[in-house]
Amino acid sequence: MKEFKRTQRVSEQVRRELADIIRREISHPDLGMLTVTGVDISPDLKSARVYVTALGGTLNVKQTEQYLNDAAGHLRYHLSQRLSMMRTTPCLQFVYDSSVEYGSRLSALIDSVRTDR
What we know:
The structure is a single chain. The chain is of the alpha+beta class. The protein has a single domain (6-116), classed as GMP Synthetase, Chain A, domain 3, CATH 3.30.300. It has helices at residues 6-25, 61-70, 72-82, 99-116, and strands spanning 33-41, 47-55, 91-96. Helix 1 crosses helix 3 (72-82). The model has no long low-confidence stretch (mean pLDDT 87).
């Protein structure tokens, strides 16, 4: 059994906590439903890149990233309250994760090829 690195454990904990914080604290109707798909934390645990997707929102990708990055300080504060066991709370940078949309498009293309035959 492979042991997980500390950064992997912290990344997963940050992902879970941020998903809950965003669900509770961010109430912008134009964002739609936000999902935290992953978190990459630097080895020194001082910065985190947070990958998100949005479904049903009216904002484009750049606007969604901008809104979340503007709210990063507020979200970091709430994260620090939940991760009290950590000496420092990582700085958050939000990045839109387009892999879900890419997967949906591929799936639709595959399904269209199947129905054509």
